[in-house]
Amino acid sequence: MPAIVLVGAQWGDEGKGKATDALGQHSDYVVKFNGGNNAGHTVVIGGEKYALHLLPSGILSPGCIPVIGNGVVIDLAVLRSEMDTLTSRGVDCSRLMISADAHLIPSYNRILDKVAERFLGNRRIGTTGRGIGPTYADKMNRVGLRVQDLFDENILRQKVAGALDQKNHLLVKVYNRRAIEVEQVVEELLSAVEWVRPLTRDTGLELNRALDAGRTVLFEAGQAAMLDVDHGTYPFVTSSNAISAGACTGTGVPPNRIDRVVAVIKAYTTRVGEGPFPTELHDESGQWLQAKGHEFGVTTGRPRRCGWYDAVVARYASRVNGATDLVLTKLDVLTGLERVPVCVAYDVDGQRHEEMPMTQTDFHHARPIYEYLDGWSEDLSGCRSFDDLPAAAQRYVLALEGMSGARISAVGVGPGRDATVIRHEILG
Ligand code: GDP
Ligand code: IMO
Ligand code: MG
Fold first, then answer.
1. What mean pLDDT is predicted for residues 240-250?
2. Which pLDDT score, from 0 to 100, does residue 298 have?
3. In 3D, which of 281, 250, 259, 252 has the Cα closest to residue 268?
């Protein structure tokens, strides 16, 4: 089963880091294919906690080669500092491979991300302010900078000057900010050449050859289906393709080489930033989920909005991703509830919708229709097999499986690497 794509099925922070780390231990490569340091993936190994932003979670498995694919946008200062922090904690980062085609996040795009949000006022997206949107926009506008440009100083200078021609007008005339000097940006980027060059590869060739040789390659998404620029709750989305198809465009590995798609989904729902969220709770239940699930962003520290499990979102995410397996995470957080509400459909202006409404306007008006499942009071953190789970928790998992579009192959019962109930082997 050599090529597996792992994605988020909700609005991010489902526990992709933990799942990637678990599968990554049995993989030869772990590859990031979209997003950048807007992501925050947490891995807990033996009580040690690692927060990864740009580095693939496979970096923590000694036998595994971590790869940053062409679809990722890279802030070099963040990457350097993440590598330094991990190296000081004894993690070997020398195996990292970076695509020559990946785009760079120049400093002016961080500034533009933040000022654009300020100007949007109450129409803001609630971005992470990391320059993600402006950098993907530059890529599409064909004024982006790529890793390979670092190795040709003349080209780099021309490209920075070309981009700043437009951006300085925007910064000065629209946003009332100071113009940015070409040389300052070029110097900052060139200061990374020495350490980036040895890590740079034709990663598309490398990965296709690895698959030819029967190696196992795991593709790790940032963000999630509902934040996907094409299939999410546009415009309240990120600027990349976070669904499984993004693994192909974001790495150069074609669709017919992908064997499995694992979608990670929380036993309830969270969202950071703005945008519609039908099952969001504005009462003490929401606060209870936030406190019990420690729902604060890994990247920005913002509190995550919390709500019940949404099976309409689950079915949609299973469909657009072609999910073969679901990993249900944080079931342990629900312990202590008498009844657990699950959204099975939406009411949109008096009409029942079993599937995602066609328009954003309808989605904004969607009211959840709940079914109530029995809760349980037992601590789940020691459970390792399905039979270990209390009967009501088993019924909750089976009910979710029946309405979510794919089999639930693993269930998370704690943040630690081993705190997982395996129902079906994903790599087997
Ligand atoms: P990601 O962005 O999808 O990788 O998820 P985050 O790391 O942003 O957020 C998930 C959080 O839940 C992290 O703090 C994880 O350590 C934690 N976590 C993951 N799986 C479980 C689980 O099954 N139970 C509990 N209690 N925590 C989990
Ligand atoms: P992981 O990989 C949750 C959200 C932001 C904002 C929107 C656009 O940890 O699941 P951006 O900075 O990408 O332009 O912001 O997307 N967002 C995330 N929310 N988890 C993430 O990543 C996210 N990455 C971006 O909060 O609403
Ligand atoms: Mg996260």
1. 98
2. 83
3. 281
